[in-house]
Each structure stands twice: as C-alpha cells, then as structure tokens.
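Known limitations

Files may contain more than one protein. Parsers should not assume a single record per file. Below, a two-record file is shown to illustrate correct handling: read the sequence, read the token line, then continue until end of file.
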Amino acid sequence: MRIGVVLLGLALVAGYFLWLRPGAQAVSLERLNDDPALVPSNALVTIVEYGDFGCPACQAWLNAGILDRVIETYGDQVQFVWRDFPIITAFSPEAAQTAQCAYDQNRFWEYHDLLFERYPSFRDENLKNYAVELGLDSTAFNQCLDSRQHQATVDKDLKDAFDRRFRGTPSFLVNDQPLAGPPTFEYLQSLIEPILLNNN
C-alpha cells in the first residue's frame, strides 16, 4: 500500500514537470489524427506504413523504390500514409518526434528521406542539424523537439500499431487489411488492382 502511494506521488511529480516543459503546447485532436500522407485522402486505395526510422528493413524497402513505383503506376488513385512505430532503437522515438516537428512545417517527407539516408546518426544535435540543412525554421523546430511536443502524436501511432497486433517494422495496411513485413511491388499490385477494378 505504502509503495503504491509513493509510486503515485512520483508519477504526479513527474507529470507536473513534464507539464512545465518550456514551450510545450498541447497537440490538438485534429493534429493528433493528421498523418503525413502522399496523394489526397479521397484515393480509392490507402496504404499505411507503420515504420521506424531506425529500422534497416524500412530503409531497404524505401531504397528499393517500391513506393515510387506505386505512385508512378497509380497516381492519385493510391494514397500512402506514414505512422510511427518506433520500437527498433533507443533513438527511434526521438527521431519520430523530429519528423512530426518537420511535418508542422510541411516538410515531413524531405525530413523522412533524410533520416533514412543518415541512419543511424540520430543524436539530438544531428536531428536539429538536419532541420537546418533542409531550411526549416530552426527556432520553431528546436522548441518543438525540446518540449517533446509530439510525444503524444508518436505514442498514439505506437498504440495503434500494437492494437493491430503488429510486432515488427515495417508493417502495413492496405485499405485496413494488415500486412506484416515489407511487400513487393507485385504483391501490392495484386491487392490494389482488384480494388480499383471493383470501383470503376
């Protein structure tokens, strides 16, 4: 009983200091549910990747150009969405938060690509330097990162991934159908084509 009271007290103190983080602002519900996406939301097919910037398999899937082929082949009929699933390295959660800070400045995909290009250099100073390199507002970016403004955003995605019983990265949804592991272009095509055919 006494241990429980002590733990509760420590949790309340920790919560208090987290609430006092300089510059931290509560993320609106709209922003919390706003995932980075390529192609408009009215696409017939939505592919969601649950990825980790510290995941070699995620990096390899990106470098294989499969996403580029999907976009080139299907254009605005297929939307691609990113959700954070930072479980691979100790630095993955912070890298995910920085990408969300870049998204606040409409530069998520450039930062996404740069993180995979520079993996595994995810130290705090590197993450901030990448923002400078991309020409972001570094003051706003650093404030966003230092205050952990998007920890809630990343945590929401993480819970979503676990709720769907995903256990590794990358994992995918195609119109809410779960896929474990990185799919080939041909496999994605076998899922996409019937959906498009049935809606034309």
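...continuing to the second record:
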Amino acid sequence: MNKSNIKICGVKNIDTIICCIKNKIKFFGLIFYTKSPRNIEIAEALELINFSTNKNIYSVGVFVNEKLNVLLNTLKKLPLNFIQLHGSETNAYIKAVKKNNKIKVIKVIMVKTLKDFKKIDNYPDTDMFLFDYKPSKNELPGGNAKSFNWELLKNVKIQKQWFLSGGINIRNIKDIENFTIPYGIDISSGVEDKLGIKNNAKISSLIKHYGTNKKFL
C-alpha cells in the first residue's frame, strides 16, 4: 500500500527531532497550549525550528482557541511551516491568519459520529484537515490516546489532504489501511513513556513496523 506521511506531535527536544529526521518523518508538532503537558515555550520552539531547517522535516505549530493577535505575534517570532488549529476557530479566523502570512493551515475536526464530517464545509480556506477523537469535557483537546470509529471513514469523501489522529500506536497503525489511506498520520501518546515524554525507541520501532512515504505534497 502507499504509506502515509507521519507527524510526531508534542515534540520538546532536539533528540526527538534527530530521531524523526533519521526515520524520514516529515512533520513535527510544537504545542502552544499551556494546559497541555506537551506545551513548549517560544524560545525552546525556536531552537527546534532552527535546528530542523533544511533537514527535510516540517514544523507545525499547534494552537487551541488562541487569541488571534497572540497567534499572529507568535508567527512573527517563529518561522513555522504550518499551523494546526485544534479548537473552535472559524473560517474567518483562518482567513485572518493567512491574510498576511504565507503559511498553510491544518484545521482539526473532532469526530464522534458521521455528522461531524459535515463540519468540513465550514472551512473552505483551510489547506488541510486533521480528524481526531472528540474529547469529553474533562479531557485534553488532543493526545488522549483514544480513537474515534475509523469505520466512519469508509463513508466520507474528502477533497483536501488530511491527517488521521487519535490513539494511533504500533499495535494499530497498520489497521488504518482497512478503512482508508490518509495523506498523513498524526501520533503523540503512541510514542510516549508518559504524557509529554517522547521515547525515541518507540518512534523508531513504529516507523520500522509501518514505514514512511518519502513524498511530500
């Protein structure tokens, strides 16, 4: 089968970046959400982005209902390749971000039932989508090690490139091909020892087990 691009989300140190590059992983996520154990400070993020430059890996800044002026100010400080909006941001918000920034936007859609995919139509200006498990009120917006019913993907036609996320690990990653082949697969908790602590051996084992796609866009 055609392998999907891999994104490791919640990266916090250069050692993890080195591991991702070694394993030909195409994306790494930097989370700017203070309530997350994977949150990263601007200075630390800049160090990782600078290290990754020209190394065939792409940075993704992850934001959750961030104030527009704060996000725009962050983009002035960090040369991110993508931003991922993981909250209830509107299409108008996306247009405002892109108005003065040459950056691609990934909009997250939380999925529980087939009806949730109808939200795709609300975001004509996004560049990509990411489909994730819909959390309960007491859970984090993402990285909960839980999956939605992938069977739903058999009934959906998605015109734009998209990522699949939520509870993906070495035990179930190959099961995805039974339902769909996404453009990308987003993994966080599945390669951690505990919340926010990535395990390079788990990353390498997962890639060895699954493989990666060298193509990008």
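Parsers that stop after the first record will miss the second one. For reference, the second record is described as follows. Helices lie at 14-22, 42-52, 68-77, 91-99, 200-210.
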